[in-house]
Amino acid sequence: MNLTLEQALSFGQETLLASSLELSPAEAFKKARLLLAHVLKKDPSYLYGFSERVLSAQEQTLFKDLILKAIQGMPLSRILEQREFWSLPFSLNVATLDPRPDSEVILDVALNLLKGHNTSLRILDLGTGSGCLLLSLLHMLPNAEGVGVDLSFKAALCARQNAFNLDLSQRASFIQGSWTEALSGKFDLIVSNPPYIPTSEIPHLDPSVRLFDPFLALDGGIDGLDPYRNLIPKFKDLLSPKGFVLVEIGSTQSFDVEKIFQAENFQNIMCYQDIERRPRVISAYV
Q1: pTM given for the model
Q2: 7, 117, 167, 238: most buried by Cβ count inside 10 Å?
């Protein structure tokens, strides 16, 4: 027998509560509600007004499949293939990192350092993934345009679709490439959230990261610093005379990454903390 929306919500909540996820009743209900709304392609509020509507066989099968994925540990953002970042919706795919709130520190710092800057800006985002950093900046900076680069063609396509969805395609372009290869011209701001997890630590990451984020977006080499050693020497050739760079770092990497910037004679090197007071972003001027 096919379930009504009310019955499907109860089934989803009870199934999630009985799993090993250790959810509260409210958390289980919220997750079930979001999954059911996703199946129906409706806003979650729809479920309250049509609680007696009966699911089709196809909808019911899909909903149960999504509940199964949830109890197996797949993050909600991966099931829905969407994540809110900087209060904007971003589509995800298997080639993109799932953006975390920690990365919003880059945006906070960038907007603070650019305060009062009213002229046009050119921004580069290296390892762009879903395009969340570049597109969030363009959303806030109407005089800016930018380029996002990712080694994964599939990630670049995802970022391009997000630009279209956010009505930013006219000011954003995304290309597949290896870091700074094939780039030309100067940029006023370079942002990057490169892979910075030491290879040996990846097997010990939380399963929600280890099993569902692309290895390419996590692996920073033996000590997690390979991308910084690769990128920082190249930044100067890409930055405009008063340009600056913002890179995300692991919470124990501030000293080592600052040393790499110092060795390349960057100026005004500063480290910024995330909401948990952990080192998270380094800024440096050419």
Answers
A1: 0.91
A2: 238
